[in-house]
Automatic annotation (TrEMBL):
<dbReference type="GO" id="GO:0003690">
    <property type="term" value="F:double-stranded DNA binding"/>
</dbReference>
<feature type="domain" description="Homologous-pairing protein 2 winged helix">
    <location>
        <begin position="2"/>
        <end position="62"/>
    </location>
</feature>
<protein>
    <recommendedName>
        <fullName>Homologous-pairing protein 2 homolog</fullName>
    </recommendedName>
</protein>
<dbReference type="GO" id="GO:0120230">
    <property type="term" value="F:recombinase activator activity"/>
</dbReference>
<dbReference type="InterPro" id="IPR036388">
    <property type="entry name" value="WH-like_DNA-bd_sf"/>
</dbReference>
<keyword id="KW-0233">DNA recombination</keyword>
<dbReference type="Pfam" id="PF18517">
    <property type="entry name" value="LZ3wCH"/>
</dbReference>
<dbReference type="GO" id="GO:0120231">
    <property type="term" value="C:DNA recombinase auxiliary factor complex"/>
</dbReference>
<dbReference type="GO" id="GO:0000794">
    <property type="term" value="C:condensed nuclear chromosome"/>
</dbReference>
<keyword id="KW-0175">Coiled coil</keyword>
<keyword id="KW-0539">Nucleus</keyword>
<dbReference type="GO" id="GO:0010774">
    <property type="term" value="P:meiotic strand invasion involved in reciprocal meiotic recombination"/>
</dbReference>
<dbReference type="InterPro" id="IPR040661">
    <property type="entry name" value="LZ3wCH"/>
</dbReference>
<feature type="domain" description="Leucine zipper with capping helix">
    <location>
        <begin position="145"/>
        <end position="202"/>
    </location>
</feature>
<comment type="similarity">
    <text>Belongs to the HOP2 family.</text>
</comment>
<dbReference type="InterPro" id="IPR010776">
    <property type="entry name" value="Hop2_WH_dom"/>
</dbReference>
<dbReference type="GO" id="GO:0007129">
    <property type="term" value="P:homologous chromosome pairing at meiosis"/>
</dbReference>
């Protein structure tokens, strides 16, 4: 039996609507989908089969005898509506799954690749190497003070210490002179005028 007759017999026997893929599957794939589709197109052209389009889906059914009752036609329409609803629901599920897959793909593409991670690790390793080298250089070569700088530091230290001692002596001489006619003690006088001595703040003048 050729595909044309097999498709016609199947639709007539089942007396319900199918799409081309379902027909090929229900015929146990004895005929290719392309052959089944061509047979359906030929049957439609000959007026033996009717076709209805729902979105991108085409549904085929055997052309009914006009002598059928209104109830029979109504039942067939209900079957077509049921098929349409089923296909619509399946389409919605597929679209939802497609959106989910697209989102997952987008998320995966936004993640750094293995190559990017290797490159980043390599950059970090290089930076660590540079820092370790600098640390080694610093630890092996501590800061050295030249003889000139050392001499200058000592000279400045002695100069400022001498000036400190000189000014302290002048200040204390003035305090002693004032205390000769001051009715209170030295401590009270220093507190009154707001003078802090080295001893009061715990500082010892270098010798």
């Amino acid at each position: 039996m050729d595909a044309f007759q097999a498709v016609l017999n199947y639709l007539g026997h089942q007396n319900r609507p199918y799409n081309a893929i379902d027909i090929a599957t229900n015929l146990h794939n004895e005929y290719g989908k392309t052959v089944v589709q061509k047979s359906l197109d030929k049957l439609v052209d000959q007026g033996k089969v009717i076709v209805k389009t729902y979105g991108k889906q085409k549904i085929y059914g055997i052309k009914q005898d006009s002598s059928k009752s209104f109830q029979d036609v109504s039942n067939e329409l209900k079957e077509l509506d049921a098929v349409d609803l089923k296909l619509t629901n399946e389409l919605q599920v597929c679209e939802k799954e497609l959106k989910s897959c697209q989102k997952n793909l987008k998320d995966l593409l936004s993640e750094p690749t293995t190559e990017d991670l290797h490159r980043h690790i390599s950059d970090i390793d290089s930076l660590i190497g540079v820092l370790n080298m600098k640390w080694t250089q610093i630890s092996e070569n501590p800061l050295q003070v030249s003889a000139e700088d050392k001499e200058r530091i000592i000279t400045d230290y002695n100069k400022h210490t001498k000036e400190w001692r000189k000014r302290k002596a002048i200040c204390m001489s003035m305090v002693e002179a004032i205390l000769e006619n001051y009715p209170k003690t030295k401590t009270e006088f220093l507190e009154e005028v707001g003078i802090e001595t080295d001893e009061s703040v715990g500082v010892t003048l270098p010798k």
